[in-house]
Amino acid sequence: MDEPRWLDRDEARAWRGYRRMRRLLDLQLSRDLTRDAGLSEADYDVLSDLSETADHRLRLTELAARMLWSNSRLSHHITRMQQRGLVTREECATDARGSVVVLTEAGLQAIETAAPGHVAAVRRHLIDLLTTEEIAALGALSERVIDHLTSESSPA
């Protein structure tokens, strides 16, 4: 077995900083979203994904894949969102076992109301702290890591 390639001081600093930043940023954005719009991050993700489709609907399996959630976990969350009137669930016309999640008028209104405040929080807590060059670098490195993690050669 090969010896591990331990992180050097700069690599460890970058890795630990990224992990701490990610946790703090996620926590702050979640708090802001809940306080300002009464939505959880998961609610926001569901509503924004649905609102970005032409007909405001997605198969539950596709939505779960986008969110990196299991179908079961998302199904339970969708049930809670249905109870609040944000989405409905319909049978899939092409697959009797499948279901389609549909954005309601109340759900569309909720995402349209929440989005400006959420974008302002993203700006306040991340984007506006960076230079144009840092934003470009963040975009490039994010895309590289995402491409690596979603490539077929990458283990699941």
From TrEMBL:
Record SUPFAM superfamilies: Winged helix' DNA-binding domain
Organism: Micromonospora sonneratiae
Protein origin, superkingdom: Bacteria
SMART domains: HTH_MARR
Annotated HTH marR-type domain residues: 11-147
Pfam families: MarR_2
Signal peptide range: none
Protein name (Swiss-Prot/TrEMBL): MarR family winged helix-turn-helix transcriptional regulator
